[in-house]
Amino acid sequence: MNQGHIFKWISRLEGSSFLLLLGIAMPLKYIWEDPSWVQVIGMLHGLLFIAYIALAFILRAQQNWPFKQLIVVMVCSLLPFGPFYVEKKYTI
Questions:
Q1: Predicted TM-score (pTM) of this structure
Q2: What residues contact residue 30 under an 8 Å CB cut-off, 6+ apart?
Q3: What is the signed CA dihedral for 21, 26, 73, 67, rounded to 10 degrees?
């Protein structure tokens, strides 16, 4: 399995974990005062975020992405549906 294929899956998982964090875990924490979901989903999202960024740098080197493309990929990691856009636009 090559890094592009791995990045595609990490991008999907990172985007999904971000949506779970924002849409389920955060409301449970602040509305129903249950922070346990934020702890679990937040840790998973953090690990996936680190993998996403690391793989973005690896792919930039391997596929000769221009610096601007790397910036777009990194900024998209901060947007709720950004990783899904990156997965469709920049992965094989």
A1: 0.91
A2: none
A3: -140
Q: Is the pLDDT of residue 92 over 70?
A: no
- Of 15, 16, 3, 17, which Cα lies nearest the Cα of 60? 3
Residue pair 90/73 in contact by the 8 Å Cβ criterion: yes
Between CA 35 and CA 42, with CA 36 as vertex, the angle to 5 degrees is 85
Q: How confident is the model at residue 3 (pLDDT cuts 50, 70, 90)?
A: confident
Spans of all domains in the chain: 3-90
Tell me which residue of 2, 13, 24, 6 sits closest to 83, measured CA to CA. Answer: 13
